[in-house]
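Field log, afternoon session.

UNIT: design team B
ACTIVITY: writing a sequence onto a fixed backbone
BACKBONE:
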């Protein structure tokens, strides 16, 4: 029963996934609010990211990130939690290290202008000591993980490439990697927070 969920590699009415609007279907099945952010057109539909929320979702934005090849985005939703708002951002960075770093620089430039509380999470395709994550850590606070920390591939993880960062949120426990190996090719990460 999560409050917020960030999903990457989501199809919206694509041929390969049976023309299902995956974000809408997951929202229906979970009883949550759901929104889709398109990174690109694909097989008669869209491919991108989704956000599910137990709380009302306001404005959404797709931030196009620089790079060549598959388009990469950060997908942002403004979430109303009680009378307070927070920005919840899902990201999926490139496989190429140089492009990841440029995407991190572009992303932190956008996010550093925000004053509201913020949670950034997703598939960064990079480890915690990489230049990419160091760049993001200059603007947002990384959320520490409890061992075991590896997230990909889901069946037998060898890499730690899924992370969370926050502004004006405080983790109440260390983030954990859940031992789920069926729903995705990455294991999900879970964290609990309180407002700063």
């Amino acid at each position: 029963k999560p409050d917020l969920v960030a999903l990457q590699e989501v199809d919206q009415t694509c041929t390969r996934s049976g023309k299902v609007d995956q974000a809408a279907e997951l929202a229906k099945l979970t009883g949550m609010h759901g929104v889709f952010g398109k990174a690109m057109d694909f097989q008669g539909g869209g491919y991108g990211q989704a956000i599910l929320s137990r709380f009302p979702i306001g404005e959404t934005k797709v931030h196009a990130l620089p790079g060549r090849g598959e388009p990469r985005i950060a997908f942002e939703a403004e979430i109303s939690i009680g009378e307070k708002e927070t920005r919840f951002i899902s990201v999926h960075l490139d496989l190429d290290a140089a492009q990841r770093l440029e995407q991190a620089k572009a992303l932190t430039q956008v996010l550093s202008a925000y004053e509201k509380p913020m949670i950034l999470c997703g598939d960064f395709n990079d480890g915690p000591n990489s230049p990419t994550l160091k760049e993001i850590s200059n603007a947002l606070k990384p959320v520490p993980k409890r061992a075991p920390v590896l997230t990909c591939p889901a069946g037998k993880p060898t890499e730690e490439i899924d992370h969370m960062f926050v502004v004006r949120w405080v983790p109440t426990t260390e983030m954990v990697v859940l031992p789920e190996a069926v729903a995705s090719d990455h294991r999900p990460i879970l964290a609990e927070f309180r407002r700063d």
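LOG NOTE: The radius of gyration is 16 Å.
NEXT ACTIVITY: expression trials, pending approval
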